[in-house]
Amino acid sequence: MQLPKVEQNVFETILARRSVRSYTPQPVDAGLLRTLLNAAVRAPTAMHKEPWAFVIVQDKQILQKLSDCAKPLFIENIKRSGHSVEAIDSPDFSIFYDANTLVIICAKTNGAFSEVDSWLAAENLMLAACAMGLGTCVIGSALLAIDIPEVKAGLGIPGNYSAVAPIIVGYPRGETPPSPRKVPLIFSMKESST
C-alpha cells in the first residue's frame, strides 16, 4: 500500500480532527476510500478477530432515501429527550449534511468485542481522513434506519452483521472550529497503608 503524503504528525492530526457538517460537492474517489479502509483495518482487534466489514454509499438518491427514513426516527428520539427538533425537521435538512460519501462500519454479531473493535476502526478511518484533508462525522442518527431489515438488506448488510458506525466523508466546505473539551477526569487508586 502506498502511503498518502501528509503534513501532520499523529498528535497534530488528533487535535485537528473535527465533526464536519458542511461539505463541497467534490466526490471522494475510490483510491482515497481504499486508503481510508486500509487505515481502518489497522486498528487494534481483540484476539485478532477483525470483525468489521464496510458498506460504501456514494449514490445521492440512496443517501437521500436513507436520510428521509432516518429523520422521523431521529426526531422522535430527540423529542423524548426534550430537545428542540426545529432545524432537523426542515424538509431540506439531510442528516448526512450533503456529504457525498457514507461509510458504514459493520461488525459481526457473534463476537464479544466486535462493536469495540469496529469503533477503533472508525477512529482510525477518521484520523486518516483528517490527515488527508478530508472531513468526517459520525451519523449515529442513521443507525435506527439502517437497522430496519429492508434497509439493511438493501444496503447489502448480511444478517450476521450489524451496523455500528455510519460515518460521512468528504471535502470540508470551510473551516470547522474546534469544540471545547473538558479536562480529563482522572480516578486513581489510594495507596495501601500496609
What features would you describe in this structure?
By secondary structure, the protein is of the alpha+beta class. It is 35% helix and 14% strand. It is built from 6 helices and 4 strands, in the order H-H-E-H-E-H-E-H-H-E. It has a 4-stranded antiparallel β-sheet with strand order 1-2-4-3. Helix 1 crosses helix 4. It starts with 9 loop residues before the first helix and ends in a 24-residue tail after the last strand. The model has no long low-confidence stretch (mean pLDDT 92).
| Percentage of β-strand residues | 5-15%
Q: Let me know the average pLDDT.
A: 92
Characterize the largest beta sheet: strand count, sense, and whether it forms a barrel.
4 strands, antiparallel
Anisotropy-based shape = globular
Secondary-structure element string: HHEHEHEHHE
Strand neighbour order, sheet with most strands: 1-2-4-3
Rg, Cα atoms, Å: 18 Å
Number of strands: 4
Structural class: alpha+beta
Supply the number of helical segments: 6
Stretches with pLDDT under 50, minimum 5 residues? none
